[in-house]
Specification:
mainly alpha; 1 helix
C-alpha cells in the first residue's frame, strides 16, 4: 500500500466517524422531540380536564379585538 492509499483510508475512516456521530445526534434529537410532544399532549389533556367543569357557552362571545 502506498502513502496516498493510507491517507485516503484514514480520511475515509475519519469521515465515517463524523457521519456516525451526526447520525447518533439526529436520533437523540428525534427521541427528545418525541418526549417533548408526549409531554405537550399530556399537558393539553390536563388542561382539557380542568376546563371540563366550565359551563357551556363560556368564552364564546369574547371580544379579542384591540
Amino acid at each position: 500500500m502506498d502513502t496516498s492509499a493510507l491517507a485516503a483510508a484514514a480520511i475515509s475512516a475519519q469521515t465515517s466517524q463524523v457521519q456516525m456521530a451526526a447520525a447518533a445526534k439526529m436520533v437523540k434529537m428525534g427521541a427528545q422531540q418525541d418526549a417533548d410532544i408526549a409531554k405537550m399532549v399530556e399537558a393539553a389533556a390536563d388542561n382539557g380536564q380542568r376546563l371540563a367543569n366550565v359551563a357551556h357557552g363560556i368564552g364564546t362571545a369574547m371580544d379579542i379585538s384591540v
